Amino acid sequence: MSSILVFGAACLDYIAQVNHFPRPDEKLRTNSLTICSGGNASNTATCLSRLDIKLKLLIKIGNDLNGEKILKNFQEEKNIDTSLILIESSITSPSTYIIVDMETKTRTCLYSANNEQILINEINPNCLDKINFIHFDSRSTEAALQLAKLAKEKSILCSLDLERDRPFLNQLIPLVNYIITTENYSLNVCKDSSLIQTAIRFLQTCQFVIITRGKNGSILVEKLNKKLSNPIENINNHGSIVTQEIVHINEEHFLIWNCTAWPIQLEDIIDTTGSGDAFIGGIIYGLLTKEFWSRDKLLRFASYIAMCKLKGIGACSSLPYLF
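The line above is the sequence of Carbohydrate kinase PfkB domain-containing protein; the predicted C-alpha cells follow.
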C-alpha cells in the first residue's frame, strides 16, 4: 500500500448519549458519556490505519490535557506516524460536544470557539517526502492550498472532503483529483437544483465527484470514458446495490453511479458521528489498492465501512481492522 498524508483538524469529542434530544430548559440524564478523539482528518486517518494503511498525520493541537489525549490516541494506532503533528503551547486544543439522540438516531455537534489554523509558514516541503497521496479535510485552507500546489509539482494525487464553505476553497478545488462532498453542501452552499449539477461544476478539474446522502446512500459522477467502463458487480444482492446511468448535458456525457447505503437494522445504529469520515476512508483505501477497483466495488466497500462505524459510540470505536 502507498504512504499517504492526511491534513486537517483533530479535536477531543465529548459524546453524551440520551434517550431524546433535550427540550429548552430541560434537565436530562445521559445514558453514557464517552471521551475520544474526533475531527474529520483524525477520523479518516484512524479509519485508514485500521485498514492497514501507513500514513502521516498533519494536524495542530495545544500543549494541554486535551492535546495529550489526542496525541496518545494516535500513538496507539499501529499505522499513524505522528512526527508531523504540530504542538503549540499558546493554543487550546479544540473540543466538540456531541449529543447522540437514541430516539431519532441523530447527532448534534457543538464546536468549541477556538479554531486554530495551520499556518503557511508551518508547512515544511519535506513533509511530502515518500508521499504519493494527500487527503485534505477542508480545514486550514490557506495552508492546504500551499501544500496542494507543492503536491501538484510532485504529481501527488489529492482528495478533498468538501464539507462546508471556507476561504481559499475556490483555489484549492482545481488542484485536487477526487472530491467527496455532501448533499447538504450541494443544496445549501452550491444552491444547485440537483446533485448532478454540483458534480459537473467540479468535474472540469477532477476525476470524479462523490456526493454522500446519509441513509440514502451516495452517488459518484464522472465524465464518460467508454474504455474504462466495466459491468456492475453486485453480488447476490447483498449489501449496497449499485446502478449506473448515462446523462447527456451541455454536449457532454457523464456516467452516474448510484449506491444505496449498506443495510443495517435501526436498533443496531448506536451513533452516526464520523460515518462520513469512515466512508471517505473506505474510498481512499480503494483508490490506493494495487489492482484497479471498479467504481461500484469502491462505493460498496466505502458503504460497508460507514455501516460498521454506525454500530459503535464515537467516530472510531467500531471501525473494522484488516490486520
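Note on the example: The chain has eight helices and 16 strands. Residues 295-309 form the longest helix (15 residues).
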